[in-house]
Amino acid sequence: MIQKLLKNNKKIILFDGVCNFCNSSVLRIIKHDKKNIFLFTSLQSASGKRITAHFNIDTTQIDSIILIESSTKYSVKSTAALKILKQFNGFWMFFQICWVIPPFIRNSVYNYIAKNRYAWFGKNNNCMLPIPEIKSKFI
User: Fold this and answer.
1) Where are the domains of the chain?
2) Whole-number pLDDT of residue 5
3) How do beta strands 11-15 and 74-76 pair?
4) Cα 80 to Cα 76, 83, 100, distances in angstroms
5) CA distances, 39 to each of 26, 91, 114, 124 (Å)
6) Which of the four CATH numbers 1.25.40, 3.40.30, 3.40.50, 3.30.70 does domain 2-137 have?
7) Which pLDDT score, from 0 to 100, does residue 3 have?
């Protein structure tokens, strides 16, 4: 299943589908994904659950962003975010400087934001339904 989804060098971003911040981030990524690299699915969806089961990822520990890079490789937290941003030009390239920050520090900041994302940005009762123009980007 994973190999079929990753054909043509696609990468899959799993995200928290009820998080307003995560949903707006996904829409921003789609807007800037000029190379058409990314596909998306929420962690709460059937496909998201199959993917996390394939990788044996505990979504009680990692519940905000996962970047699937191949059928055997994935990244989480700040590393996933930086790898996603690496695909974009312009202002987004500025964030590549964050690679010099040790992962335990980057992930501490990431965890703080993730822990507070519902309080700061809100939460939906249901996952986002993509509009027809971007439906092909979702699995």
Assistant:
1) 2-137
2) 65
3) unpaired
4) 5, 5, 15
5) 10, 22, 21, 21
6) 3.40.30
7) 66
How do residues 85-117 score in pLDDT, each as one tens digit? 998 887 777 788 889 999 999 999 999 999 999
Residue 10 predicted with pLDDT over 80: yes
Dihedrals phi, psi of 133, to nearest 5 degrees: -65, -25
Kindly state the DSSP code that residue 129 receives in the 8-state scheme.
P
* Amino acid letter for position 12: I
Whether residue 13 contacts residue 137, with contact meaning beta carbons closer than 8 Å, is answered with: no
Residue 88: predicted pLDDT: 87
Q: How is residue 116 written in tokens?
A: 């507070």
Q: What is the CA radius of gyration of the chain?
A: 14
Across the strands, what pairs with 123?
A: 19
AA letter at 17:
G
Total residue count of the chain as it appears in this document = 139
Provide the strand spans (E) within 9-64: 11-15, 38-42
pLDDT grade, residue 57 (50/70/90)? very high
